[in-house]
């Protein structure tokens, strides 16, 4: 098995964040829940997920709610200087799948929270994600012409404005989060810290740096996992954790959500790499086959398509396992994990 990882080696920041935010948690270095799961034998889904057809309705409802909220949070397209606000809105409303916001709200629901409490944090995460895509597409990075079925930001507004639109979306995320209230277990400062860490130079940016530096090189599966953990899993995991925090979740729930988000996040990037090989540009809304042309380090490139699919399935199984403590009350999260594995775009 090429892709072996140790659950107790979850990134330190997760343990730190949990330990610092909660009273009565395990001391540093201990992550008992995760260790317990390592010996779990039963590899099956937990509660069966949402009834058939309900996930599509859930996704549509969350997308509509997030779009309305983002529209309220962002400066009007006509606000001076209009160019930057048009550019921000262009990428933000280009038709992204809104999976991180959906995960955020689903995590809140699993912990007994309200969509309305999670929504601002879901919007903040989507702003960070969209900024990362605008910059990822720049000629200096992946040099992509299409994103979300439309021309990339720099193709429409020019590189200078695209850089600034990314900067502005990242900043907007923190403004939105700063306007939220904190929760008894998760004071305001911790919410901001969670976003900053997921997006910062030790996580998302670290992954993007390593991704660029790995171009054209032969790297190991371990090095590739380092890239995926950071460039993609960190923000997905942060989305899920923030959803839990918005429900004032218990320490045990936060641990379970962290475990879930970490594995779903890794699976997400493995599938993204697979889709780049197997799907058309029309279907993806971005240029297919680019990874091979740019000699990117990806799972299909390192272990082939069939093994990559198996890795994604195993990671998704780990994510399902992480939901056991919710005893079936995390149906939306469970269905989302399955959908992310089976998605074709
Ligand atoms: C694409 O993310 C970038 C990755 C981290 C793989 P999505 O596939 O969620 O992109 P959108 O938001 O739907 O455009
Ligand atoms: C992008 O990964 C990750 C981030 C933007 C942080 P990719 O470069 O694989 O994403 P796509 O394929 O361009 O959407
Ligand atoms: Mg990239
Ligand atoms: Mg890219
Ligand atoms: Mg990709």
Order of helices and strands: HHHHHHEEHHHHHHHHHHH
CATH homologous superfamily? Farnesyl Diphosphate Synthase
Q: Overall mean pLDDT score?
A: 89
**Main sheet, how many strands, which sense, barrel?**
2 strands, antiparallel
Secondary structure tally: strands:
2
Account of the protein in words:
The protein has 345 residues and is an all-alpha fold. The protein has a single domain, classed as Farnesyl Diphosphate Synthase. The chain contains 17 helices and two strands. A two-stranded antiparallel ribbon has the order 1-2. A hairpin with a 2-residue loop joins strand 1 and strand 2. It is globular. The chain starts with 11 loop residues before the first helix and ends with a helix. The protein binds 3-methylbut-3-enyl trihydrogen diphosphate (2 copies) and magnesium ion (MG) (3 copies). One 3-methylbut-3-enyl trihydrogen diphosphate binds next to helix 12. One 3-methylbut-3-enyl trihydrogen diphosphate (IPE) binds next to helix 12.
């Amino acid at each position: 098995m090429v892709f072996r990882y140790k659950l107790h080696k979850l990134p330190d920041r997760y343990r730190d964040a949990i330990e610092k935010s909660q009273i009565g948690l395990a001391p540093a270095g201990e992550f008992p829940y995760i260790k317990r799961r390592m010996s779990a034998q039963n590899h099956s889904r937990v509660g069966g997920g949402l009834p058939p057809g309900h996930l599509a309705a859930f996704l549509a409802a969350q997308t509509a709610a997030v779009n309305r909220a983002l529209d309220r949070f962002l400066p009007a397209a006509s606000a001076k200087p209009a160019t930057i606000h048009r550019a921000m809105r262009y990428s933000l409303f280009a038709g992204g799948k809104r999976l991180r916001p959906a995960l955020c709200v689903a995590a809140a629901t699993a912990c007994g929270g309200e969509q309305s409490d999670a929504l601002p944090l879901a919007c903040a995460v989507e702003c960070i994600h969209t900024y990362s895509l605008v910059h990822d597409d720049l000629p200096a990075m992946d040099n992509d012409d299409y994103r979300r079925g439309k021309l990339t930001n720099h193709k429409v507004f020019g590189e200078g404005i695209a850089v600034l639109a990314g900067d502005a979306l990242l900043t907007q995320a923190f403004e939105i989060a700063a306007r939220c209230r904190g929760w008894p277990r998760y004071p305001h400062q911790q919410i901001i810290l969670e976003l900053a860490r997921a997006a910062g130079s030790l996580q998302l940016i670290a992954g993007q740096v390593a991704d660029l530096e790995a171009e054209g090189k032969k790297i190991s599966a371990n090095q590739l996992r380092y890239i995926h953990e950071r460039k993609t899993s960190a923000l997905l995991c942060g989305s899920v954790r923030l959803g839990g925090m918005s429900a004032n979740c218990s320490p045990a729930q936060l641990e379970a959500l962290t475990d879930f988000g970490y594995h779903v996040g890794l699976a997400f990037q493995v599938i993204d790499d697979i889709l780049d090989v197997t799907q058309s540009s029309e279907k993806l809304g971005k240029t297919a086959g680019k990874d091979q042309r740019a000699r990117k380090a990806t799972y299909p490139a390192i272990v082939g398509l069939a093994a990559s699919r198996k890795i994604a399935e195993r990671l998704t199984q780990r994510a399902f396992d992480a939901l056991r403590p919710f005893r079936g009350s995390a149906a939306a999260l469970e269905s989302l994990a399955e959908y992310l594995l089976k998605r074709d775009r």
